[in-house]
Design goal:
Length: about 280
């Protein structure tokens, strides 16, 4: 009976610990977010036709069709996703996650926080790209590191992801660290250079100007076990709706284009995008 009581007590303590609002991972995310916002600065400028005059035609159409012209230039963005279908990898389960993301503008910066659970145990993730250093951290039970991926390949992957999202934060698309090249009426290529690393990819657009996808070969697929593969990666945008006075995508997906078939590993719907200029 004593042993049983001890076991029950331990279980109760664990459950209480899981229920506590404190999170080491979220604290790290919040601290990094403060850095990103501090670096973002302020802007009183508006998007103008002169700003986009030198961009490829489909990119110009994006700014006009999505109604950014005449609107404030943002210095950072916050995107909030709820109940995202998130795959843990090929032949691995798909879980539901909540996902909060920040992107800076003055220099390539990106942060994201994942809140979920695995088999009833809290699971958190923290993606960080600050100062040219990328990382992807996953913790289970609030304190146990499930993975902590870093290195040059992660730096490059984070920079490629930032490029893919440049038109989520259109001020970024106008920065000198991104160079655009015309292709045709519905495609444009872009190259980003920062912190000694260069990445590129191709943006696809509808005839009206909505961004539909981004494809790159500069993003290494890294599994939770640390295994790396060079695989094409695609970001997909869909279901454009008016959010305030801007036309923005409400569905965002990320896909690994493996030779044996595509893996849709991030399927976010009803995303809420917020822009800040001060």
């Amino acid at each position: 009976m004593i042993v049983l009581g001890v076991v029950v007590g331990i279980v109760l303590l664990v459950l209480v610990f899981f229920a506590l609002p404190y999170s080491k991972t979220h604290k790290e995310f919040s601290k990094a977010t403060d850095v990103l916002i501090s670096d973002a600065g302020v802007s009183d400028e508006l998007f103008t036709l002169d700003d986009i005059a030198s961009l490829p035609l489909p990119v110009q159409k994006f700014f006009i069709h999505c109604q950014f012209i005449g609107k404030p230039k943002m210095t950072y963005m916050k995107a909030t996703f709820k109940d995202v279908d998130f795959s843990l990898g090929r032949e691995k389960p798909t879980i539901k996650i909540d996902y909060v993301q920040y992107n800076g503008v003055t220099k390539p910066q990106r942060l994201a926080y994942i809140d979920s659970s695995l088999y009833g145990i809290p699971f958190e993730g923290f993606d960080s790209y600050l100062g040219g250093t990328g990382s992807m951290l996953g913790r289970i039970a609030k304190v146990i590191a499930l993975f902590d991926q870093r290195g040059v390949d992660m730096d490059r992957a984070c920079l490629a992801t930032f490029l893919a999202e440049a038109l989520f934060v259109p001020s970024a698309a106008l920065q000198p660290y991104i160079q655009w090249e015309a292709m045709d009426d519905t495609h444009a290529s872009a190259t980003i250079e920062a912190y000694g690393i260069t990445c590129s990819g191709i943006f696809s657009f509808s005839e009206e100007g909505e961004m539909l996808s981004f494809v790159t070969d500069d993003r290494m697929a890294t599994g939770m076990d640390g295994k790396k593969e060079q695989v094409q990666w695609t970001a997909i945008l869909a279901d454009y709706t008016m959010q305030g006075d801007l036309l923005l995508p409400s569905t965002l997906q990320a896909v690994w284009n493996y030779p044996e078939g595509d893996l849709l590993y991030f399927d976010g719907k009803n995303v809420a995008i917020e822009y800040f200029s001060r």
